Each structure stands twice: as structure tokens, then as C-alpha cells.
Automatic annotation (TrEMBL):
Top-level taxon of the source organism: Archaea
Protein name: Sulfur carrier protein ThiS
Gene3D superfamilies: 3.10.20.30
Species whose genome carries this gene: Natrinema versiforme JCM 10478
InterPro entries listed in its UniProt record: Beta-grasp_dom_sf, Mopterin_synth/thiamin_S_b, SAMP1_3, Sulfur_Carrier/Prot_Modifier, ThiS/MoaD-like
Coiled-coil ranges per UniProt: none
PANTHER family: SULFUR CARRIER PROTEIN CYSO, SULFUR CARRIER PROTEIN SLR0821-RELATED
Length: 92
């Protein structure tokens, strides 16, 4: 399955482009995010904290906010907004 994925913020440096085509076997939003990391390993720190997806990562399917367990229909497009990092008092 080929899915267009639009990324924002620091994910652009990981993918090299604002919109990329993800070739994957299909499945849920969580599966799609894992496939993005497989294709673009530099995206992992923006999306995951250890084995868990960062709580502030937002994903839309065809412009609608989507939960991790929602299926991604064939022909749908995804957008991924990564976690915002930093802030006052954070020591990294």
C-alpha cells in the first residue's frame, strides 16, 4: 500500500521532504508510524520516548484526527505532527 505522509517540524529533516510516499503493508495508525520510523530511522526520537509513542504526537488521516488503533484506509493520506520538545526548566 502506498500512503502519502506529510510531516511537520523536525520530522522534515528526518524524511528530507515535507511529503513522502510510505510503502507499507497497511494496518493501523500505529503501524503507519512504525513504518515511517522503519523508512526514516532519524524520525524515531521525534516520535517515540523509548518504546512508547510520545503523547504529544498528533496524526490525522485525510485531515481528521486519528487514534493509534484506527485503521488507515487504502488511498488515505496521513499527516504527522511530532512532539514539541524543550521548555523552561527542562534539562534535556
Amino acid at each position: 500500500m502506498k500512503t502519502p505522509v506529510t510531516v511537520y517540524g523536525p520530522l522534515r529533516s528526518a524524511t528530507g521532504d515535507k511529503t513522502v510516499t510510505l510503502e507499507w503493508s497497511g494496518g493501523t495508525v500505529a503501524d503507519a508510524i512504525a513504518a515511517v520510523v522503519d523508512a526514516y530511522p532519524r524520525a524515531e526520537p521525534q516520535l517515540y520516548d523509548g518504546d512508547e509513542l510520545r503523547a504529544s504526537v498528533r496524526v490525522t488521516v485525510d485531515g481528521e484526527r486519528a487514534g493509534l488503533e484506527e485503521r488507515v484506509p487504502d488511498g488515505a493520506s496521513l499527516s504527522i505532527v511530532p512532539a514539541v520538545q524543550g521548555g523552561a526548566g527542562e534539562n534535556g
